[in-house]
Amino acid sequence: MYQILHKEQYSEKVFKFRIHAPQMAKKAQAGQFLMVRADETGERVPFTFADWNREEGWIEFIFMVIGKTTTLLSQLNEGDYLKDVTGPLGQPTEMGPGRWVVIGGGVGLAIAYPVARELCRRGAEVSVIMGARTADLLILTEQFRELPLKGLYITTDDGSEGEKGVVTLPLERLCAAGEIDRAFAVGPVPMMKFSALTCEKHNVPITASLNPIMVDGTGMCGCCRVEVGGQTKFACVDGPDFDATQVDWNDLAARQATYRTQEAEAMAHLHEEEDCPCHRK
Questions:
Q1: Which residues pair with 19 in a beta bridge?
Q2: Which residue from 205, 199, 277, 212 is spatially nearest to 249, judged by alpha carbons?
Q3: pLDDT digits over 115-163, tens only?
Q4: Could you tell me the residue ranges of all domains in the chain?
Q5: Contact between residue 153 and residue 127 where contact means Cβ atoms under 8 Å apart
Q6: 50-84 burial by CB neighbour count: b if 16+ within 10 A, else e?
Q7: Distances (CA, A) of 83 to 171, 206, 240
Q8: Which CATH architecture is the domain 99-256 placed in?
Q9: Which tens digit of pLDDT belongs to each residue from 84-121?
Q10: How far is CA 18 from its chain centroid?
Q11: CATH topology for 2-89?
Q12: What's the predicted TM-score (pTM) here?
């Protein structure tokens, strides 16, 4: 079992866990992910590595409370244990020299950070665009500011921090000025879709890190299939990174919504259990 060494709450629904996992920490690379099961009866859910320390033997992941499993995870505390943590899974992000822009939206910033950090370590010229609905939902801002970046651009939908608007505003300017050679995007599906359209218009290659619904994370179930360039790919073993201009974004968005009804029912059942006198402390 994997002990929670540190728990940090960024906002009402966004949390970070640091987990003791020395073998995993030795192998983790930017862009890879892990599968987590909170308890014996829990489902397996994927989270991307936000950070790791090979010497101290820990890994970190960040999650937003959305459904039953993430609600239960958020109720765990330092010293508690997770039943299963499996990883690293998936392919590391492919990196090379040149001028990069790394685009992260919402909890996707947890993935954007190690990618930007590794690109900087390899000597690439890196700009970062951070996006969120409000300032409260921006995460890892100080960590990004500590990197040797060429530029850091912050956007919020309501203008509570940085530029009011979406990530494609500074992205469009960078592309039009010819200041970037490659782009990497991770976040909500609409954000990645329109980032891809912006880059494609300016002939800038862009990679997207996808997080479709997964069951086992090892390529056996086929649940995470995505359409890329007219071919079916499994995000867990072929990705999670793909050429963003080749992704069928409409298909991905539809598949992400497949189990909305069941997810709502699970949350309703959880609330009923919590309200039951036999479950009250």
A1: 4, 59
A2: 212
A3: 999 999 999 999 999 999 999 999 999 999 999 999 999 999 999 999 9
A4: 2-89, 99-256
A5: yes
A6: bbbeeeebbbbbbbbbebbbbbebbebeeeeebee
A7: 41, 37, 24
A8: 3-Layer(aba) Sandwich (3.40)
A9: 999 999 999 999 999 999 999 999 999 999 999 999 99
A10: 16
A11: Elongation Factor Tu (Ef-tu); domain 3 (2.40.30)
A12: 0.91
Q: In whole angstroms, give the CA distance from residue 100 to residue 121.
A: 13
Tokens 């370590």 belong to residue: 121
Q: Which amino acid is at 2?
A: Y
Q: Which residue has the tokens 């200041």?
A: 179
Distances (CA, A) of 116 to 86, 101, 163, 234: 24, 8, 21, 25
